[in-house]
Amino acid sequence: MTTPQTAPALASRGGTPVRATFLPVSRPFIGEREKQLVNEVLESGWITTGERTIELARRVAGLAGTRHAVALNSATAALHLALAARGVGRGDEVVTSTWTFASSVNVIEHVGATPVLVDVEPDTLCMDPRALAAAITPRTRAIVPVDYAGHPCDLDAILGIAKARGLPVIEDAAHALGAAWRGRPVGSFADVTAFSFYATKNLTTGEGGVAATDDAETAARIGRLALHGMSHDAWKRYGESGSWYYEVVEAGWKYNLSDVLAAIGLAQAERFPEMQRRRAEHAAHYDRRLAEIPEVRRPVVREGATHAWHLYPIALELERLTCDRARFIQQLKAENIGTSVHFIPIHHHPHFRDSLDVKPGAFPVADDAYARAISLPLFPGMTERDVEDVAEAVRKVVAHHRR
């Protein structure tokens, strides 16, 4: 076993970094096809919402196994409009995970409802169905499970709880395009599923997202609410086939996606299977190399789950180390390895801690996970050498802090 005496000196202490150049935690995988399709849109004279946006939604519906999808400017918009389309509002409660990004909870407040946070399972860090069942009250109007890192939630258990109580499930699958549960794609389970096309996601448009659903009426209302509440096909009003006349049939928002960004997504969709294969290969490579380091917990893949590998999150066995997570990250950065932390639990943020009156110790699993969590670099453009460098840097830092 490598010890501090036999390991190379840490870069933070004057040693040579594992890498000569910095490796970011994520980088978009953009090629000539994306540039070609964007240029075609720019030359077409139609650069806002149009046929490319509709085609991207259709492609994603196919990946998600749904009949309908609406392309939007973010997954946040998809979650917000899904709640609004389902009539969730003031006086209602919506149950979601505390282990998520702020947008999952912000949108609940945006419709005037009260977020009810629950803890997560210790292995997947997805919503704990037992905690969900305990949190439901007569005021509960919806459930928002969060698929973490690309691993789907226990959808059988969550949907069983929802069905027994007549509650809609609006799945936050921002990490999970390409994931599956028991052979069915994520997107084909919930009443509405939100996917993200942010710059770091498995399929990117720079900024963007999709609301996927099997319900035609829900899809139509989400599409209407995304463009000011204007009547059907109002986006066509400046085109040859459109009309200047439109009607606002309800108050909406400005959440539409442009054809310029959709063109990037269409090129990404063409390469999506290849990008997913690369992510899975890099994750398997990490698994092999990090299995040799007992101070590091690797992500799990439960039986029945197909992981999308949006992230490769590790957890430090702090009881075996002489440093905390913050110091570990600093030393990886000195070795030219970028990292991030997914997530800062919702109840750690001042706004939610105060507004939801969170009691200390209410979410022990999430609190423990937060102290240990580090997301390592994972993106399709990485090479095997990149993965080796990350694993070697982790090994090097562990060796200097092994108890």
Secondary-structure blueprint of this entry?
Blueprint: H1 32-44, H2 51-64, E1 68-72, H3 75-85, E2 93-97, H4 103-110, E3 114-118, H5 129-135, E4 140-144, H6 155-165, E5 170-172, E6 180-181, E7 184-185, E8 192-196, E9 209-213, H7 216-225, H8 259-290, E10 296-297, E11 305-306, E12 312-316, H9 325-334, H10 350-355, H11 364-372, E13 373-376, H12 384-401
Parallel strand pairs: 2-3, 2-4, 5-8
Antiparallel strand pairs: 1-9, 6-7, 6-11, 8-9, 10-12, 12-13
Helix pairs in contact: 1-8, 2-8, 3-4, 3-7, 8-12
How would you describe this structure to a colleague?
This protein has helices at 32-44, 51-64, 75-85, 103-110, 129-135, 155-165, 216-225, 259-290, 325-334, 350-355, 364-372, 384-401; strands spanning 68-72, 93-97, 114-118, 140-144, 170-172, 180-181, 184-185, 192-196, 209-213, 296-297, 305-306, 312-316, 373-376. The chain has 403 residues and is α/β, with parallel strands linked by helices. It folds into 2 domains: 11-17 and 272-401, Aspartate Aminotransferase, domain 1; 32-268, Aspartate Aminotransferase, domain 2. Strands 1-9-8-5 form a 4-stranded mixed beta sheet, sandwiched between helices. It has a 3-stranded parallel beta sheet with strand order 3-2-4, with helices on both faces. It has a 3-stranded antiparallel beta sheet with strand order 7-6-11, with no helix packed on it. α8 packs across α12 (384-401).
